[in-house]
Amino acid sequence: MSTWSNVLNFNKIALTEQDNLPALALVDLAGWGLITLVGDDKKSYLQGQVTCDVVSLAQDQSTLGAHCDAKGKMRTVFRLFHHREGYGFFQRQSVMATQLPELKKYAIFSKVDIEQSDEILLGLTGQDASAMIDQVFGGEGEVRAIEGGTAVNIDAERWLLVLSTEHAETVAGKLAADAVLSDSTLWDLYDIRRAIPRVDAATELEFIPQAMNLQALDAISFTKGCYTGQETVARAKYRGINKRAMYIVSGPSEQCPQAGDALERSVGDNWRKGGTIIAGYQFADGQAIALVGLPNDLDEDSQFRLAGHEAIWHKQPLPYTLDEDK
């Protein structure tokens, strides 16, 4: 649990599978981290490291992307945006110790400083989130410079706030007056329902970008030129070598599915490992929902279960189309 606030307590909200999500919630994004990149060569350096097109990223936009190893396996999935005098690179904290040194490996040859930030990360969620951002901060665009930091629009019901330690308490106090307070599990639920991928330490270097649907989320540029792992990513598109995709599954569970957990699939009368949990959320009524990497040729009526458990799980519809031609 984060300890940056002396007056606000962020706890998990008890939600059943059928409950509406809060109209406005302030989320403490413990478990997430931020890398900053500043310097004259920040754009060109990052362009050669990641899957997304950094050069074309407008000042008021953000993008998903992946940072891969030379074999095309992902070290992280991140959201990139303009922040202060450089870029903000929002990702899971659990991969920071291994991924950040790899991102910095060749920076000595460029005019770029790459560091982990100590800024406070908050989420504002719900149907009233955008109106509250407009009211409190003003401005226009999906990425806005605000007092003390940056506000980044994630989707129709979510904003990411990156705030200096000096401003975080004051800004959070203003927003908390009208919002429910939640820990980061509410953010997890949004990500899962919207099928937004992530890489945690337990799944680092396991998936190529298309196996987590990044081609369907405009997180891969196939025209930008070379970057680390680009050959594998291109072969997956043009030669069809990728045999996996990320799906939403749900079912009864006595515990919250964790990244790296095994999901089994039914094969006749037997069960075999079917995939790997990417992120999970447990509801208050004994149901759970998760993102999972699975073979992309399974029958639609395939049944699943968490390894070591008997309860049957089923695949749910994705909120977007998996389009390899994208």
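Above is the first protein from milestone M3; the second protein from the same milestone is given next.
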Amino acid sequence: MSDAERPTGASRTALATLLGTTLEWYDFFLYGTAAALVFDKQFFPSLSPAAGTLAAFSTLAVGFVARPLGGLVFGHFGDRLGRRSTLVVSLLLMGIGSTLIGLVPGYGTIGLWAPVLLVVLRIVQGIGLGGEGAGATLLSMEHAPEGRRNLYAGFPQMGTPAGLVLANLVFLATNSLAGHGTFLAWAWRIPFLLSFVLVGVGLVVRLRVTESPSFHQAREHDEVVGFPLADALKAGLPQLGLTLLAVLANSAVAYVFMVFTLSYGTQHRGYDQQFLVLGVTGAAVLWFASIPVWTRIADRRGRRTLFVGGSVAVLVWCAMFFPLLDTGDGAMALLALAGMGLILPVTHCVQGAIIADTFPVRVRYSGTSLILQAGAVLGGGLAPMISSALLGSGNSSAGVTCYLVGICAVSLAGAVALFRTVPETSTEQAVRRPERAGEACTPAP
């Protein structure tokens, strides 16, 4: 590809990865919203409201447990066969899983098999998404023009809030058109069945993108390795551990904000369900719109200062978030949600690029998937369930606030330590030249 052609191809690829990740996150977030508002009644009707919500969030967590498996499998083949083909398969898996969830009979029809099938399909969803996050980030980032690496790596990150907005809007529209009673009875299935159509559109777009130039170069220089995960681990336990700690809080805070807030606000603070869903959706719009701003700042000023400053801001806002919700005032609740929508993307938008630049091209998919999915399980997957358990049968959110502030403090310490242990070098040269065996890349500034 010539220099003149590359920006156009890079932009097309960035938009394609954004669309693909949006559709995958749409499917994944449908489950989270349904777990917060519907699944306790459909699949765990014999339990109390609190126990039913906890059980529904437990099935939500199962998808996160499956994500590392998907990340390892797709990472392996993504480093050996290419990023593009593995992303096509991951999107297909997610679409099949979501469509079939819309067809699973409730507990009243098939008894215990209903939650069992729900869990199995959630695992399919988790495996599909496990291969998406790292692969989409790499495909876009490795097409990026010089000096815009963070911006292009941020396009797939925009798929997270975009998928949340799409899922919530479809849920709200279905609920409004069908009526609440009909929605709880069967119409909640419509958003899941819609996945079949949306994923078909996504596959058409994804099949038209080109393979990563960096992967092509690695293959031309015969750098493809038989077991890329083993080579990825050569980055060393200290650096891998600190990178994992640095990104842990973002996942935990995001899922408390996007999922747990819905059940907490409606069951314990008396907020209207539609009001909260619209509030979270509006905050996700701010999240989506602010990512290009933050990534451009990272390209100009360096991602390290941005990430550490964002980590501090997330910690401070987590200390304020539930106290604002607990006022019971709609304006304060909207302020809490909007603040989260503006602050979360500061760290979220560059974490994919930070992780990716820890690894050389030949093992980058495997290494990035390992860190991303481990962070998703330890952070996001457990967060709604831990928050529900901390809340228990009482109304005090103090335990949840302490949990979020604590995990933010751990991540902040990990980020500071990580950026003190790696040199202020860029990995752009590593992308353009063959890498020696055993050589590892270090995070770019």
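Note on the second protein: The domain at 6-204+222-432 is CATH 1.20.1250.20 (Growth Hormone; Chain: A;).
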